[in-house]
């Protein structure tokens, strides 16, 4: 896949047999808009580019020969239920592989939202956002864009799901502007790796949080959580099991709610593995909203993978 940049080079994700690597090749245009193309000489999915124009307001306007929709939320057929992104967006090292070189950091989210339709916000793990900050994020993205939030560490790592009513209420209050706008994906409760299964505590927490209006996803990072009583507790309160995979641990793909959450954190993915991810997301999104996030890294590899996956889901596999 070729991702847009502005210095005359474009990174290509290629299958080396052991995973996907990023190479660079020269292009003759100044890229901004992303489109789909498959070279007849190699089995890579290329994101072609078009000319860079800007409106009087300074926003990027994608015009030219790009084949992909100008809006990543454009879809074919019925309502689109797959939301794909990365964990965060404020990475200057993603220039020029993902962000055009001239893009200022204050415009990163605005550009990101032209390429992907969701993001996982890690900011909320350490502090709650202000209403003004949320308003700025809403203004930088359109109505079809979804923000997922990592739950505060006070809930997951300090209190460890015990006596959390006050903190849950504070979180719900802080996210109220996003929730009122219908722009929240999920709130991810990522438990620490040393937190072993405790079903009574989980049930008490779920009961306390169920009235908050928060759509909850749980990422368990200790294998003792992966059994039926845990899944039943999640189902009882309409919370989803976050299917997270990394080089160390993989979560069983068990459905516990009418929405799903996936976190793809492996350091490398082969072409066959990405094909499998696509099939899974298609299947799940046929029955409800699905939120999928690729790992953020110093290099824009995760963002490039996310763009490619979203285009696949929107338009189907290219021949």
What secondary-structure arrangement, pairings included, does this model have?
Elements: E1 9-15, E2 20-26, E3 35-38, E4 45-48, E5 51-54, E6 60-63, E7 82-86, H1 108-115, E8 118-121, H2 131-139, E9 146-150, H3 153-158, H4 165-180, E10 184-190, H5 199-209, E11 216-219, H6 228-236, E12 240-241, E13 243-245, E14 260-264, H7 271-285, E15 290-294, H8 301-315
Parallel strand pairs: 7-15, 8-9, 9-10, 10-11, 11-12, 13-14, 14-15
Antiparallel strand pairs: 1-2, 3-4, 5-6
Descriptors for this entry?
319 residues; alpha/beta; TIM Barrel; five-stranded parallel beta sheet; four-stranded parallel beta sheet; 15 strands; disordered N terminus
Radius of gyration over alpha carbons?
Answer: 20 Å
CATH architecture: Alpha-Beta Barrel
The outline comes out as globular
Under CATH, the topology can be stated as TIM Barrel
Which strand order does the major sheet show?
8-9-10-11-12
- Decide which structural class fits the backbone: alpha/beta
Number of strands: 15
Order of helices and strands: EEEEEEEHEHEHHEHEHEEEHEH
Whole-Å distance between the termini?
14 Å
Please name the fourth-level CATH homologous superfamily. Answer: Protein of unknown function UPF0759
Question: How much helicity do the residues have?
Answer: 25-40%
Query: How big a fraction of the residues is strand?
Result: 15-25%
> Which class in CATH terms?
Alpha Beta
Largest sheet data:
5 strands, parallel
Poorly predicted runs? 1-70
Number of alpha- plus pi-helical segments? 8
Mean pLDDT: 81
- Tally of distinct domains: 1
């Amino acid at each position: 896949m070729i991702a847009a940049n502005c210095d005359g080079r474009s990174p290509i994700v290629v299958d080396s047999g052991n995973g996907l690597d990023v190479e660079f090749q020269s292009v003759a245009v100044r890229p901004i808009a992303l489109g789909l193309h498959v070279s007849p000489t190699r089995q890579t999915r290329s994101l072609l580019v078009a000319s860079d124009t800007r409106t009087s307001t300074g926003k990027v306007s994608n015009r030219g020969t790009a084949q992909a929709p100008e809006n990543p939320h454009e879809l074919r057929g019925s309502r689109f239920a797959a939301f794909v992104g990365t964990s965060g967006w404020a990475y200057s090292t993603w220039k020029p592989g993902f962000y055009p070189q001239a893009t200022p950091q204050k415009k990163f989210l605005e550009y990101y939202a032209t390429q992907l339709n969701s993001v996982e916000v890690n900011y909320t793990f350490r502090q709650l956002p202000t209403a003004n900050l949320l308003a700025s994020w809403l203004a930088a993205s359109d109505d079809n864009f979804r923000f997922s939030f990592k739950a505060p560490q006070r809930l997951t790592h300090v209190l460890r799901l015990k006596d959390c009513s006050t903190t849950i209420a504070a979180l719900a209050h802080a996210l109220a502007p996003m929730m009122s706008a219908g722009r929240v994906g999920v709130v991810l409760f990522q438990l620490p790796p040393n937190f072993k299964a405790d079903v009574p505590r989980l049930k008490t927490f779920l009961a306390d949080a169920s009235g908050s209006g928060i759509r909850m996803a749980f990422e368990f990072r200790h294998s003792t959580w992966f059994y039926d009583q845990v899944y039943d507790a999640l189902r009882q309160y309409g919370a989803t099991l976050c299917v997270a995979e990394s080089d160390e641990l993989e979560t069983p793909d068990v459905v516990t709610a009418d929405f799903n959450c996936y976190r793809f954190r492996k350091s490398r993915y082969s072409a066959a593995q990405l094909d499998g991810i696509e099939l899974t997301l298609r299947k799940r999104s046929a029955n409800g909203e699905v939120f999928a996030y690729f790992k953020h890294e110093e290099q824009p590899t995760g963002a490039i993978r996310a763009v490619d996956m979203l285009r696949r889901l929107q338009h189907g596999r290219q021949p």
